[in-house]
Specification:
This protein is of the alpha+beta class. It has 2 domains: 229 residues, P-loop containing nucleotide triphosphate hydrolases (Rossmann fold, 3-Layer(aba) Sandwich); 126 residues, Beta Barrel (OB fold (Dihydrolipoamide Acetyltransferase, E2P)). Helix content is 23%, strand content 35%. It contains 8 helices and 20 strands. The strands form 4 sheets. The chain has a 6-stranded mixed sheet, with helices on both faces. It has a 5-stranded antiparallel sheet with strand order 13-12-11-14-20. It has a 5-stranded antiparallel sheet with strand order 15-19-16-17-18, with no helix packed on it. Helix 2 packs across helix 3 and helix 2 packs parallel to helix 4.
């Protein structure tokens, strides 16, 4: 079964700036697919190309296997929800939502049924007579989503839709978006620079950087197995160590000399050869802290000094200095101490991690 929506070899320039560089990927029917990346990486440009608001220099756009590259926006069966809501301020909530069906010439009894259904889906029954300036930001965004969904588009594009909301409202709206998606089943492409939003909402994520897609995968794949240093650093916290593969242990594992800290057995998912330079990425929560050297199968350890501690309720974050003076961020859940002695500032500790908790990223050559 092919992809429901697809970009093929998309190139886009603005003047002499190369914004999108030969990007291809597909979106499956019914999924929430996020385009995630920093400002200026090209993600919003890709969304505008999908909606027909920008033309690519080259490449094709397909919806249900039909080439829509030259199709005008209002003929694509694709709708967009913008960050600033774009509601008509002089119209009521009801009339804002009814605008699309009325413009399409649908008779008023059917428009009324459609609007009532959408108000039910976005949980704003009883708010139809209110004007946009009398409702909250989260309610405005739900109205914008209802207005975009009422004409039953095949694809809904969401461009940083929660960026204007405060943290608690964003968290609530993420749950609402997920619920609305489950109710209507429309395919969503969601653009954001916020990795927390993408991780909590998406079926799959495309991480974009400097006009290219660095990796596509589920949130778990992106987090646990980043393919590039950029992906590892952009998604969550991590610790990087320069390293070199000095020996092969077996087909799955190798020995890495890690930035002067020592030689450690590590999982070698890229099957890199001896002599290869690598960046070792270890997530903060993969580390454990002990007050003495601890022997266990497949456990690597080095000695360090605690230089800072931040208590965060459910967890405590430690910063330690290792032999090469490199600072490493560690997270230790408070219930997970091996014994009752908790490390404090200036303590000598042993930092441990399992060999399988390492991501070895091949040395990257400049583009």
């Amino acid at each position: 079964m092919g992809d429901f929506f697809e970009f093929k070899n998309i190139e886009k320039y603005f003047g002499d700036q190369h914004i999108v560089k030969n990007v291809s990927f597909g979106v499956r029917c019914g999924e929430i697919f996020s385009l995630l990346g920093p400002s200026g990486c090209g993600k919003t440009t890709m969304l505008r190309i999908a909606g027909g608001f920008e033309d690519p220099e080259s490449g094709e756009v397909f919806l249900e296997s039909k080439d829509i590259t030259k199709t005008v926006p209002n003929k694509r069966k694709i709708n967009t929800v913008f960050q600033n809501y774009a509601l008509f301020p002089h119209m009521t909530v009801w009339d804002n939502i009814a605008f699309g069906p009325r413009t399409a010439g649908i008779k008023e009894p059917e428009v009324s049924r459609m609007v009532s259904k959408m108000l039910e889906i976005i949980r704003l029954e009883g708010h139809g007579s209110r004007k946009p300036d009398t409702i909250s930001g989260g309610q405005k965004q739900r109205v914008a989503i209802a207005r975009a969904l009422i004409n039953n588009p095949k694809l809904l594009l969401l461009d940083e839709p929660l960026a204007a909301l405060d943290l608690k409202l964003r968290q609530y709206m993420l749950l609402e978006l997920d619920r609305i998606h489950d109710e209507v089943g429309t395919t969503f492409i969601y653009v954001t620079h916020d990795q927390g939003e993408a991780m909590s909402l998406s079926d799959r994520i495309a991480v974009m950087n400097n006009g290219v897609i660095e990796q596509i995968g589920t949130p778990a794949e992106i987090y646990e197995n980043p393919r590039t240093k950029f992906v590892a650093s952009f998604i969550g916290d991590t610790n990087f160590f320069d390293g070199k593969i000095i020996d092969q242990i077996d087909r799955e594992n190798c020995k890495i000399e890690m930035n002067g800290l020592g030689e450690f057995p590590s999982f070698n998912e890229h099957k890199l050869a001896s002599g290869s330079k690598v960046t070792v990425s270890i997530r903060p929560e993969k580390f454990r802290i002990f007050d003495r050297k601890y022997e266990a199968e497949n456990l690597n350890m080095f000695e360090a000094e605690v230089i800072d501690i931040v208590y965060q309720g459910a967890q405590t974050r430690y910063w330690v200095r290792a032999r090469d003076h490199r600072i490493n961020i560690l997270t230790q859940h408070n219930r997970c101490y091996l014994d009752s002695k908790q490390p404090t500032w200036g303590d000598k500790v042993w930092v441990a991690w399992h060999r399988d908790d390492v991501t070895t990223i091949p040395e990257e050559t400049p583009h």
